[in-house]
Amino acid sequence: MEDSTKIWWDLRPSAKYPTLETRIMDICTRMDDAISLAALLVSTIRMLYRLRIKNQRWREYNPMLIRENRWRAMRYSFDEGLIDFGIGSIIPFEQLLDEFIELTFEDAKSLGCESEVAATKDILSRGTSAHRQLKTYELSIAAGNNSEDALKDVVDMLISETAEGL
Questions:
Q1: pTM of the complete model
Q2: Residue 74: is its pLDDT beyond 50?
Q3: In the chain, where are the structural domains located?
Q4: Which backbone phi and psi does 165 adopt, to 5 degrees?
Q5: Contact of 145 with 13, CB cutoff 8 Å
Q6: In angstroms, rounded to a whole number, what is the distance separating the alpha carbons of residues 147 and 44?
Q7: pLDDT band at residue 27, thresholds of 50, 70 and 90?
């Protein structure tokens, strides 16, 4: 499969609804995290559209570099940073997120979701659902529970987080 067709699995038009589907982000167990990421996504799409109507676009990078950052994100989440292709080095994720929020600020403001976009930084401070699941498991094991009971604690945490705010 050519690299240009792989993006189809990250972002694609829905066959059933007049929407775009994104599969690049993990499932959020917290409603506020899901809302923040959705706000960042729609702001990004608006920014790209804004560039397009001004006859501008993003730079194109070697697909191998894109795959490397995708692998880094899957392997390390936001803990180890990503490669900034412009400067050629690994940059802390928080710094990249700040830059991304700045790039999409005009669009988030236009859409009325600037506070939701800014709240993506809260995910960094409390961790993703995967971070919290691992921490719950480790704390349960440290408290003397066996693996099965620690996994039950993780399930309980997931149920609690998913139900919060509903």
A1: 0.82
A2: yes
A3: 3-125, 128-166
A4: 85, 5
A5: no
A6: 41
A7: confident
C-alpha span between 132 and 156 (Å, rounded):
12
Is residue 28 within 8 Å of residue 115, measured between CB atoms?
A: no
Model confidence pLDDT, tens digit, residues 101-128: 999 999 999 999 999 999 999 999 999 9
d(CA 2, CA 19): 25
Task: Quote the CA–CA distance of 21 and 108 in Å, as a whole number.
Answer: 19
| DSSP three-state, residue 98 | helix
**What is the enclosing helix (H) or strand (E) of 12?**
strand 11-13
In angstroms, rounded to a whole number, what is the distance separating the alpha carbons of residues 104 and 46?
A: 8
Compute the average pLDDT of residues 60-89: 90
CB-CB contact of 32 with 122 (8 Å): yes
Tell whether the model's pLDDT for residue 4 goes beyond 60.
no
- Buried residues in 83-105 as b, exposed as e (16+ CB within 10 A): beeeeeeeeebeebbeebbeebe
pLDDT at 40: 94
- Any idea which residue has 């710094």 for tokens? 95
